[in-house]
Amino acid sequence: SQQGEEDPQALSIQEGENATMNCSYKTSINNLQWYRQNSGRGLVHLILIRSNEREKHSGRLRVTLDTSKKSSSLLITASRAADTASYFCATDQAAGNKLTFGGGTRVLVKP
Amino acid sequence: GAGVSQTPSNKVTEKGKYVELRCDPISGHTALYWYRQSLGQGPEFLIYFQGTGAADDSGLPNDRFFAVRPEGSVSTLKIQRTERGDSAVYLCASSLGWPGTDTQYFGPGTRLTVL
């Protein structure tokens, strides 16, 4: 079963706009990770945020974590056509153990 | 260095046949994971190895699925008597396996199609 749920399921924006997607989960976590997937194949790790962190940045990516609401958000600023992909959040309930993924948000960035 | 590699990239088989899927983790990574992803869904955990031993195999759907990692590096996922419902992309990931190094690095996956 999947712990996380992403919202929205699909997102279509123009190049240059910001894209925001949210992830909710059910149980306590050790950390939360965001991945990108192109064409239904390998996942690319984007960012990891630990349960004691509230916000993290990496380039054009900003991730927030609210453990009281069991939710996280991923913001992609100044989107590019190359950002078109599916984005997944995944939670890790113990360091080094299995990841539980959400259903993903499919992002389309139109040039 | 090289990333996680998986072979074959595509596998087509007939219902009832046996298949093996191979994963080569990043050199030095002690933890290895298998996931399965159906179309339009997120990956689902199958099994996790720490070294040679299966630390958690709670995600294996039934006893037709089995995985090994005999030397603590390469892993093979084995599926007996394949069924059409086994069709999916099988993803492998590896991590350093040490506390505080939790990032899992994924391979490109093997797309299994059972006819």
Can you give a write-up of this model?
Chain A is mostly beta strands. Chain A has strands at residues 5-7, 10-14, 19-24, 31-37, 43-50, 55-58, 61-66, 71-76, 85-92, 99-101, 105-110. In chain A, strands 2, 4, 5, 9, 10 and 11 form a six-stranded mixed sheet that branches. In chain A, strands 1-3-8-7-6 form a five-stranded antiparallel sheet, with no helix packed on it. The radius of gyration of chain A is 13 Å and the shape is globular. The termini of chain A are far apart. Chain B has 115 residues and is mainly beta. Chain B is 0% helix and 48% strand. In chain B, strands 2, 4, 5, 6, 9, 10 and 11 form a seven-stranded mixed sheet that branches. Chain B has a four-stranded antiparallel sheet with strand order 1-3-8-7, with no helix packed on it. The model of chain B has no long low-confidence stretch (mean pLDDT 93).
Salient structural properties:
heterodimer; A: 111 residues; mainly beta; six-stranded mixed beta sheet; five-stranded antiparallel beta sheet; 11 strands; 56% strand; globular; B: 115 residues; seven-stranded mixed beta sheet; four-stranded antiparallel beta sheet; 0% helix; 48% strand
